[in-house]
User: Fold these one by one.
Assistant:
Number 1:
Amino acid sequence: MNIQKRYLQAEKEARWSLGLTILYVIGWCVCAYLPKGSAGPLGFPLWFELSCIYLPILFVVIGYWMIKIVYQDIDLDHSESSGKDKSAGENS
């Protein structure tokens, strides 16, 4: 993968990560502030269960699938001089 494609992939991954982070903050605010003061299935207040238990579990699953689908394994060692070293070794 050339350097241009690496940068494009890194930019794509950064956009997805930022989007997921913004979505998490919005989800947390909605889950924390919209429910009434009733108790949830686990006995905690519903707002707490939604924002601090269920939402993080949901986003762990979303993050797992995002890594599997969007992210790519990229070699971080970029050496354009490898061709120069090879040709220099042939002259010796």
Number 2:
Amino acid sequence: MVVHRAQARLDSERERPIPTESHRRLVTAFRTAADTGNLEELLRLLIPEERVYRLTPPSRRPAGPAHVPARHAA
């Protein structure tokens, strides 16, 4: 369902203006992530904390190679 909505938005002709400051923050965070490997700020902008839904509590996540924190995945 999320993919369907995203595809519909991409296919629509409607453009949404983006405030210059928001664009600047995103570009800066992306460049910092690319230069340093630190993804925290970029992830915070892309996925605000109040929108993160965890499937398992942090204490029950697997500790092996299947679980790699985002800051180490890139």
Number 3:
Amino acid sequence: MEARIVVSAVCVFSRDGRLLTVRKRGTDRFMHPGGKPEPGESPAHAASRELEEEVGIVVGPESLEPLGVWIARAANEAGRDIEATVFTAPGTYDPAEVHAAAEIAELRWIDPAAEPEADLAPLLTDHVLPLLARRP
């Protein structure tokens, strides 16, 4: 069995309550902005760095709110699992001010209460969206 892929991810919400998802170049699944930590980097620091690199949102690691840690099937690496530490970015964001950068090919804002589309990552469909549905 291969080792789990450790990642950090961030829930980013628009002013109307939609959740930001991203699709990386060369892949077909939408997921949270985020990625793998660099050596010695904490989950929050990795999340903060990846958020800025991928979508241009600058949030200090101390401002990210922990949402949970889950094991899920990797969206883009067959037969692998991820161990994801997921955070929520503070406040809300104007979709017009968020942009795809680095390896991000496409952004999509989704209604977290809607039926999940088939092209969402398992972390979203199996863990994060059900949790968000239970929150006030």
